[in-house]
Amino acid sequence: MCTKKESHDLLNEATRPVAYSKRTVGQFNLSMIWFGFAVQLIIFMLAGQLYPSCSVMEILIALILGNTVPAIVIYFTQELGVKYGLSYGTLVRVMFGIKGGILPGWLRAVPAIFWFGFQTWLCAGAVDAVCIMIWDYSNINLWIIVFGILQIFTTFYGIRFIRILNLFSSPALLLMGCILTYLLLHGSGTTLGEVLALKGDGSGSLAGATMAFIGGWATLACSIQDIVKDCKVPDGEKTNWPRLNLRYCVSQWLGMVPASVLFGFIGVLSMALTGEWNPTLAISAVVGDVSIPLAILCEFFIVFATWTTNPGANLLNPAYVICATFPKKVNFKAAVLLAGIVGLVIMPWKASGDIQTIMNYVGSALGPVAGIMIGDYIFVRKRKIALSDLYISKGGGYHYWNGVNWAAVLAYVISVVVSLFFPNWMYTVGLLAAIVLYVPLMKVWVLKKYPDSLLDYSLNEEWLK
């Protein structure tokens, strides 16, 4: 391995660590961001599709568990972002190597691009429903393009704009969620107790439902650094990272779990009472019969919910990954535009009937990545990263074998294969297997050839000033 450090040729503005002095997101802001993320139509649809294979109570328990498990994983993965201000696409170079980091980067980016296009389609359906109600005019392809452009423009301004958007939208979304619940119950003449008592047909399981919801957050559990790299770090907390990390983790749990349970329940309610898991069709079927103005208001709720979710959850990460993959060729706005266009062109809504299967396999693909990140940061590196070495294509401490850490690749592949034998627990099995495999491989093989002494920690403070 070369010992001579070259210039930081992998550095650009999108991959640079966010200095402590430039951070704008606090605990309350983070809760509001996560509330906006949780008010998403995928949760609505998935919860609806789980009924009647599972009972209503099973789905509600699965919602709580399926959101809490990712929050626990986030506790261990988010510190990388809070402490070092790094995006996910840059951070994974530590574990997989300067070139090898492209693999986990795109494993996260591809599902995000898929979900961006999918949720844009759902939102376009809501706009189309409003146009039909008011003008009897339908053109869903036009609304897909218009709303796609709006979200791309929103993402241009990064997490700061998304933070402000969610701060104002979250109370409105909560109110609209309660109104929609009331309208669905009132329109069908059903009580809340009757819905909660509905039994499933027994073809599904609590474990399978839980894993589906975990799969929905598996992407953000890995790439949470893209959000928390802008979190504030008070001077007095820089020596007590576990405590600060816990505070931010609690903030995220309070934002994601109650909102996910509420809007997941609305999805179950819709399926049970109308037979529709598509929120646009459910609103038209139930609320439209009660009041056209209320139906229009509820359809705009779908638009608002998607607008607060899609940019931060599904466009930020692919943009950062593209910038990390092509640091000298693509800037952040161009990367956002590219990811957004691809997400629409591939037409992911063609797979709308297979949401549970897709989420399970996303969890299977990303669980091992989270395990490798946790194993490396906590058990191998002892919570230390050399920022300077992340931007050196040749000769840096994370170059490994021609830019690839084969211990990470090997641990990843074996963990994914092992997880496939446990279909109801793919995410959890893959994550734990990756830790068990990766840590000893690093200690008995990689670190003997590439020891920590090759890393340059001397410039870390300078990077974060």
Please describe what this structure looks like:
Helix content is 71%, strand content 0%. By secondary structure, the chain is mainly α. Helix 1 packs parallel to helix 13. It is globular, with a radius of gyration of 22 Å.
Provide a compact summary of the structure:
The protein is mainly α.
SS class? mainly alpha
Count the beta strands.
0
**Percentage of residues in strands:** under 5%
Helical coverage, percent range: over 70%
Extract low-pLDDT stretches.
1-5
Radius of gyration: 22 Å
- Main sheet summary: none
Number of helices: 20
Mean pLDDT: 89
Order of helices and strands: HHHHHHHHHHHHHHHHHHHH
Taking the alpha carbons of the first and last residues, their distance comes to: 31 Å
Gross geometry = globular
Characteristic key phrases:
465 residues, mainly alpha, 71% helix, globular
Topology (SSEs and partners):
Elements: H1 27-38, H2 41-50, H3 56-77, H4 79-84, H5 88-91, H6 93-96, H7 102-135, H8 140-155, H9 158-188, H10 192-196, H11 206-223, H12 225-228, H13 241-274, H14 279-290, H15 292-325, H16 332-345, H17 355-380, H18 406-419, H19 426-449, H20 460-464
